[in-house]
Recover the amino acids of this structure.
């Protein structure tokens, strides 16, 4: 998307606004499937939590993706987008048995990550196929908040509890058709991922009726020009060979599954904001914009670094700015960042705004959430209206205080 098109979208739909490029999503999907082309059966399940707009889900379906979901509501979104239940895997954490049973009744693949629910579900529904989420005790991920495979993580069943799993499976006679892991996000070291994969292969040998092995995701995407990223092609070549060898050992072909979210949509997203005020202080120059961590929380929550460009003055002399929001709390997007000279009224574009941006947005400070736009076949389509004050009041109930 060129600056001129982004400026047109800001003029047509206002700011702040999230914009997604369907061409980049498609390219990333094809890049991932191509990396594993030597495996006969590959299943990509898009992680809905990254970006859950129904139009984006329909695009994923068009590409041939399934869905990875973590809540009943995400499952319902997937069904509303036209996905068949058998193409949806449900991988929750800490939810009630009732929610899992509700999703199972819809026909989705169930993925269970704790012994208690495994035993309860297996006792009541022994014929329902179940995948088991393993915690490989491998520390991976770019931030402690998104590293989920280590020993202190709440996610998955410890590899040291395999005997307990086998006891439950034997006692309930339940049907285990998949083994799963997810070690964390922003994984860069391929060898760490391959090491965790070996743990999963070893675990899989305990189950004789598997249909698939799910390796999660968490691939690192670049956040700026020249930034490091997961070498998905090298990883695909190495894991594909090992997976094919394992299938021969196992005695039948299995499906290799992944559940990418950020990898597919992060780079496709741009977030446009308007500069309200340029404020000079004794120590810095602030560019204060019409947004805050209510719309883009990742820099404050994870310390993520998003590229920021002044698309109103792209050729201007670069100066140093601290880009901050309008929330009544510290909400800093960037400190002392080199950006083309900024004037009040300019439009700034944040890169890598496709994943975990709108989906983590809120109405903090009673601010409305922005619109979403999908650029498909070169044309901008509004896929979510900007919220209004009426939307904020919609579910509130005034009581008569006398």
């Amino acid at each position: 998307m060129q600056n001129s098109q982004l400026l047109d979208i800001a003029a047509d739909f206002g700011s702040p606004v999230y914009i997604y490029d369907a061409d980049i999503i498609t390219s990333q999907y094809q890049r991932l499937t191509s990396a594993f082309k030597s495996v006969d059966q590959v299943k990509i399940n898009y992680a809905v939590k990254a970006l859950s707009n129904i139009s984006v889900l329909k695009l994923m379906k068009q590409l041939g993706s399934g869905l990875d979901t973590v809540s009943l509501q995400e499952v319902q979104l997937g069904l509303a987008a036209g996905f068949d239940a058998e193409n949806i895997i449900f991988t929750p954490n800490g939810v009630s048995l009732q929610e899992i049973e509700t999703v199972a009744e819809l026909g989705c693949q169930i993925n269970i990550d704790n012994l208690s629910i495994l035993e309860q579900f297996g006792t009541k529904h022994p014929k329902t196929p179940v995948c088991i989420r393993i915690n490989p005790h491998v520390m991976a991920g770019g931030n402690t908040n998104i590293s989920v495979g280590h020993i202190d993580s709440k996610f998955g069943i410890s590899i040291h509890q395999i005997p307990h799993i086998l006891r439950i499976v034997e006692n309930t006679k339940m049907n285990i058709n998949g083994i799963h892991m997810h070690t964390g996000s922003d994984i860069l070291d391929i060898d760490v991922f391959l090491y965790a994969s070996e743990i999963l292969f070893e675990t899989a040998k305990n189950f004789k009726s598997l249909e698939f092995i799910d390796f999660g995701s968490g691939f690192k995407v670049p956040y700026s020009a020249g930034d490091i990223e997961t070498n998905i092609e090298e990883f695909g070549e190495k894991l594909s060979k090992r997976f094919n060898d394992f299938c021969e050992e196992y005695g039948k072909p299995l499906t290799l599954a992944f559940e990418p979210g950020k990898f597919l949509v992060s780079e496709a997203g741009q977030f446009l904001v308007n500069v309200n005020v340029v404020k000079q202080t004794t120590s810095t120059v602030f560019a204060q914009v019409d947004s805050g961590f209510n719309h883009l929380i990742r820099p404050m929550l994870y310390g993520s670094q998003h590229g920021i460009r002044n698309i109103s003055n792209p050729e201007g002399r670069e100066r140093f700015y601290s880009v901050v929001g309008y929330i009544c709390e510290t909400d800093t997007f960037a400190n002392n960042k080199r950006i083309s000279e900024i004037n009040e009224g300019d439009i700034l574009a944040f890169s890598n705004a496709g994943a975990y941006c709108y989906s983590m947005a809120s109405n903090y400070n009673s601010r409305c959430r922005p619109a979403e736009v999908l650029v498909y076949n070169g044309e901008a389509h509004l896929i979510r209206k900007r919220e209004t004050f009426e939307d904020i009041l919609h579910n509130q109930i005034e009581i008569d205080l006398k």
